[in-house]
Amino acid sequence: MKGELRGVAISRGGIRINHLLFADDSVIFGRVSIAELKRIQGLLDIYGKALGKCLNEKKITIFLSSNTHWGVRTQIQQGAGVAICGSYEKYLRLPAVVGRSRYYTFRSLKERVWAKVNSWKNNFLSQAGKEILLKAVVQVIPTYSMSVFRLPIRLCKDISSVMSRFWWVHMKNDKRIQWRRELMQAKIGFGPSMIWRSLWYAISLIKEGVA
Hints:
Layout: E1 8-9, E2 16-17, E3 19-22, E4 25-28, H1 34-51, E5 61-63, H2 70-80, E6 83-85, E7 90-91, E8 94-95, H3 102-105, H4 107-119, H5 127-138, H6 143-146, H7 153-168, H8 179-184, H9 194-201, H10 203-210
Helix pairs in contact: 1-2, 4-7
């Protein structure tokens, strides 16, 4: 059976993968042909007999390429005897297929952050309350995806922008806090106190944080 299952190539000229195992799930890759299907079924039968187990067809689905001819699709479905799913967009809440534009693939993260932040827009949140919500709720939203994928810089900036607007907008009149611009442009002056000198030296760090 060696070499009979070609699988899929990770990249052009790269190594090929014919299966992936994660937790209690198995993903098998193959060409869209009856011959390939029979080989995979044969391997699964050998595996089941060796372990004394049988496959649960209700938990098996087949995902075919979008350019698969409808006649071949029908043959595969009849030969396999299991359901064929029309789309395979998510697996464990993560995108199973990432297209050329990673930004549009993960844009839902920005939308979730925006929806969450807008649901908190009320007159009862203090600065401390907003800080807790941003750190404990909003920053957790992209963490799961970031543990697997490298998010586009553009998307990270958009998410940071949404969080910054929520942090700096005043609750009552939806206008930016007036002292922010004055602070950024302030001079150290003549004979400053120790407190003002310490604040003035930290303005550069504040500019980086709110940029």
